[in-house]
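The records we work with from here on pair a chain with its fold. The integers have meaning only within a learned vocabulary of local backbone shapes. A complete example follows; check for yourself that the lines match position by position.

:::
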Amino acid sequence: ILVAVDDNDDDGNNITVDQQAADTAAAAAFAHERNVLALTLPASTPAIVRIARAAAPGLPLLLPTKGSELQNLNKSEYDGDDDIFAAVQMEHSTSVADVASSSSIEDRGKMTYHESMACIARSPIEYSACYRDVPVFVSNGFDLSIDDCIHQDEDRFQDFGQCGRFNETIDSGWWKRHRTSFAERQFSTFERGAGWSFAAWKLFGREENDVVGAIDSPAKLLSLRDVAAAGLIPSLTGTTTSTTNNLSCLNGPINDAAIGDETHPPSPAPPPDCGNGWWNSATSQCDYWIPPEDRVVPPAAVAGGGTLAGVGVASTSSGSSSAPPTQVGVSAMAGGAVAALVCMVVWRRFRGTSDQAYTMLR
């Protein structure tokens, strides 16, 4: 894809409208002669489109557009040209809210945020194709970076704490899982349009011992060669099974940003039932304020093997004997009957003949 987007001359001065038109015509003619796949125009005005179309009939033309500008596209302004595409910039690390973080847990939370936002990008892509009849080509914004640390050595870089812990991500299983999820979500979203362009194919100026696929610098997150070698991006050939069959955005990201690579020990089993007491984990036994009473098996039950139906059980002591439980129960009942009889005699004696003053009703 040939890109003609520079609006400055060699001296850094803005070029005129006539010069821009001449450059566009020359670029379109070159692309048409060399069978270039497509041409990205320097502007999306109808005048520039007509100039390019006159020089290159049938050449796909990409109009530089921001996501917020898709709703203003109108195919009729370009004479109903079917070879018009919107070249959309889907950058996700442009604001302070996108890049700022000052701790490891905030870094992971920011990663989860970008995973979620990647799926939302499908809305403007499908809107443009369905309601504006202009397919969308993602020309910028497909990468695995969630900050601007690639610019940290530049004077214009603003440090919000986002680059101080990159080493924590190098050998982290958590970061590899979520970067893979981030790539799959972007891939699933951008495949709904006319195509996409990754930030870069490879990095220049690599050292001799630099390993391709080792994500040990922020720049490698923008290199398709490195992220593919690291196994972070889905298969581009479709020969392997992947979760990117339009299902990557079916569920939200895994909510494990607070834990990261750390794991919690398994929960202990429920303690034994101590009844009215409690389980003492220090001594591994049940403790009680009042120890439970020891249960003594009645001697008669042991000897005869039967069940006694008495009022109570007499306790035994060494060297002494006691009456059988049945006898004790009968004696207690007899004593109760005698006491009741005595009480009735006394009550009738003191009551006397107090009822003689009353006349019997008939």
